[in-house]
């Protein structure tokens, strides 16, 4: 019910490109978010989704985050996980477009799951470096094996708790950090602040499920108000954060 109420409020406040006066955000909305081109990679993403949906594998799950709202926490079928714990078809395509539009060369993902989002980033730029972290060993190993079968070679899989893995990251900066796990206010803020040192002026932080719960929305509001953040774009399911010092501080709600 919380999400439904928030979505109704979002629709009343959200706009399209005509409500955007920032040239940077206007181009992002019109040339990326609203890009209607049918990319060949969409077929690859859809084929991977079908592969997961047809899987007969059941995984023993170790959930270090908030867990699934619909699945149990011990055994989960891959075929069910793809519908409840992975990026949707629409989101995966959007992540692909974002990676392609901004020419992302380095991406950090918190929450691999079955790799729908990971695959989108990997397809957008085969020469990019994707680092993805997953708390559940069995899930990570399963997804890694699928990527090996698909000959995806630009992704580095890490297993463990986000907080400890973040501390051990060797890479100085990331073009993008995708927060897609542990949907908890305190944890989200903790990871956000821990990774601020990895952001450069043109980095993008993307937050999944910012209306997952009241607490996640509070985390999103905290992030928006942070003094390092200049521009945010709220698309309801995903929130985009920019640090461009040349931009005036503005917040946008954009209907997709």
If you had to describe this structure to a student in words, what would you say it looks like?
This protein is of the alpha/beta class and 256 residues long. The chain is 42% helix and 20% strand. The chain is built from 10 helices and 10 strands. It has helices at residues 2-13, 23-33, 41-53, 78-84, 89-101, 116-124, 137-149, 162-167, 185-195, 214-225, and strands at 58-60, 75-77, 106-110, 129-134, 155-159, 174-179, 199-208, 231-234, 238-242, 250-253. The strands form 2 sheets. It has an 8-stranded mixed β-sheet with strand order 5-4-3-6-7-9-8-10, sandwiched between helices. It has a two-stranded antiparallel ribbon with strand order 1-2. The longest helix has 13 residues, at 41-53. The chain is globular and about 50 Å long. The model is unreliable at 66-72 (pLDDT under 50).
What's the end-to-end separation, in Å?
A: 21 Å
DSSP strand count: 10
* SS content category: alpha/beta
Radius of gyration: 17 Å
Spans of at least 5 consecutive residues with low confidence: 66-72
β content, as a range? 15-25%
Query: What letter string, H or E per element, gives the SSE order?
Result: HHHEEHHEHEHEHEHEHEEE
Major sheet strand order: 5-4-3-6-7-9-8-10
Figure out the total of helices.
10
| Biggest sheet features | 8 strands, mixed
Shape call: globular
What is the percent of helical residues? 40-55%
The overall pLDDT, averaged over residues, is 94
Q: In brief, what are we looking at here?
A:
The protein is of the alpha/beta class. The chain contains ten helices and ten strands. Helix 3 runs antiparallel to helix 5 (89-101) and helix 9 (185-195) packs parallel to helix 10 (214-225).
